[in-house]
Amino acid sequence: xxxxxxxxxxxxxxxxxxxxxxxxADIARPSYHRSALTPGxxxxxxxxxxxxxxxxxxxxxxxxxxxxxxxxxxxxxxxxDSAMRxxxxxxxxxxxxxxxxxxxxxxxVTGAMIDxxxxxxxxxxxxxxxxxxxxxxxxxxxxxxxxxxxPAGGLDLTHPDIQHDIANPTTPDTVFGAITxxxxxxxAAGHGPxxxxxxxxxxxxxxxxxxxxxxxxxxxxPALADWIEAQCSFxxxxxxxxxxxxxxxxxxxxxxxxxxxxxxxxxxxxxQWVIEDDFCAGRPDWDQxxxxxxxxxxxxxxxxxxxxxxxxxxxxxxxxxxxxxxxxDCMAHPEIAALFNRVQHEEIAPYVPGVPGMTADAYVxxxxxxxxxxxxxxxxxxxxxxxxxxxxxxxxxILRDALAAGxxxxxxxxVEALWARMCAGTxxxxxxxxPNDPQWDQLNAAALAARDRPMxxxxxxxxxxxxxxxxxxxxxxxxxxTLIWDKGTIAALRDYAADRAV
Length: 502
Prior knowledge:
- With 502 residues, this protein is α/β, with parallel strands linked by helices.
- The protein folds into two domains: 2-295, NAD(P)-binding Rossmann-like Domain (Rossmann fold); 298-497, N-(1-d-carboxylethyl)-l-norvaline Dehydrogenase, domain 2 (Orthogonal Bundle).
- Helix content is 46%, strand content 11%.
- Strands 6-3-2-7-8 form a five-stranded parallel sheet, with helices on both faces. A three-stranded mixed sheet has the order 5-4-11, with helices on both faces.
- Strand 4 and strand 5 form a beta hairpin.
- The longest helix is centred in the middle third of the chain and has 25 residues, at 297-321.
- Residues 40-287 form the Mannitol dehydrogenase N-terminal domain.
């Protein structure tokens, strides 16, 4: 990042509609008038990814004079969303996006979002906004762990937040409760349905979202559930762009480019958005900004989730244990990079179908190149966060396929052993790993017990199910975790690379 800072940086201007014309000439900015925009989308979960991805595609359409009736209202359902709301409202909901190529940075200000709804207990403002007839899409980036999925793959009806929403349908706590409440109001008023569009990294994210909304509605009002099933749509999608968290370095980079943005977003120079064309109330022409509409979303999302998202988990825990701070640094680390390349080509790619113009092995090489971009300061800590959701969602389905096919599983077993060792809470150098998972206390206890009895980790049946009864996996996992505790992470990585533990 420091290499990208300009030595003679312009004096940064505070970001707002009033200062747009005064920004440095090389910072692109909206060519459309924000006063001409009207809302058509409520987006819940205004993190960096949404602003660098979905909002950017809409901004590109607006730059072309289109989609002015599809502007975004930002929203959140958790108290911590208030901090982002305050930052964005103070700068008129504008966002500075900084595209980071390996040796350069280019900035643009986007303006597709025009307001951020209040964060309230009971979500009254959010429900009211979604109930308005002009809102035709409600989109989500609430992370993989925000879907309340039970071990069987359904909606977790035992979760306290879901139980609250069943008992209190007009004052819900969850995003799905808010959606069902808004749809109930629309149905009663005759306003018609909206499309609920998940943009999270879940295989079949549209089906998962449909299941959550319909299941919750059925426990509140069966007639409403029937109406949602018949009238609403939940398209599947695959989203892809590496977007690091924002910290002091990213804010300083924006300032060095001439803009004082309290919440700038850095991102790689690559985007992909593949969408099922299933919108019950219309949609923007995102394909004119580069999105792909197709009936084969599943193949694209399988490739991305299994190679990119699972690949992140291959790297992140080894990186944390070895005090390697970023994904790019992991790819520059000989032993960690060797693990990534071998596991990807031998144990992941064989279970990934190709898509038009791209084989699985070619996609592995593309991802390796993207992960190696030194300008993207994507931390191993961010990538390792919520491993309980990410391993179960990204890694373990591949492991099951490999076991069923009789393929090698040593590398995937090593990945799981590295996660178990990381959850013990210390790095190889003795430094502490701060809690990094909503289930950290449970994971940490299992990881510490597994030091002497490795099966204690696999006995977490809410994660592994019947995988602990798979002898090839169990034997391999036990061997790797024992080796890691006895001789260290690097020794295990070197043994894997040399086939000595196979």
